Amino acid sequence: MANQHSAAEEKKHHKHEGPKKHIIAFIFSILLTVIAFAMVAAGEINTTFIYFMLVLMAILQVFVQMGFWMHMKDRGHVFPIVGILSGVVIVFTIVIMAEYWAWW
């Protein structure tokens, strides 16, 4: 009887999303990729603007991938998120320090 109760509680906390959100996320990912390719292929746009937009779309793509495909938006993913953010901070620190060292 206790096992049935805990299984029912577990089902309450884990809700299946269904394919609708995954299809929307997939279409959004494809759209971001097509826009990036189209901007670069156009060639007549300011390169600074293209770089800025590519970085912005890459950041959006990371959030879509992490949120929908790796399920980082769900509860119980605190440690992976902390690990990923720590890695990002370390990489940015290394890049900034390498640039500073090269310009010294």
UniProtKB/TrEMBL annotation:
Q: Any keyword rRNA-binding?
A: no
* Xref: InterPro entries: Cyt_c_oxidase_su4_prok, Cytochrome_c_oxidase_bac_sub4
Q: Which domain of life is it from?
A: Bacteria
Q: Which UniProt keywords apply?
A: Cell membrane, Membrane, Transmembrane, Transmembrane helix
Gene Ontology CC annotations of this record: cytochrome o ubiquinol oxidase complex; plasma membrane
Which family does the UniProt entry place this protein in?
Belongs to the cytochrome c oxidase bacterial subunit 4 family.
| Protein name stated in the entry | Cytochrome C oxidase subunit IV
Organism, scientific name: Paenibacillus montanisoli
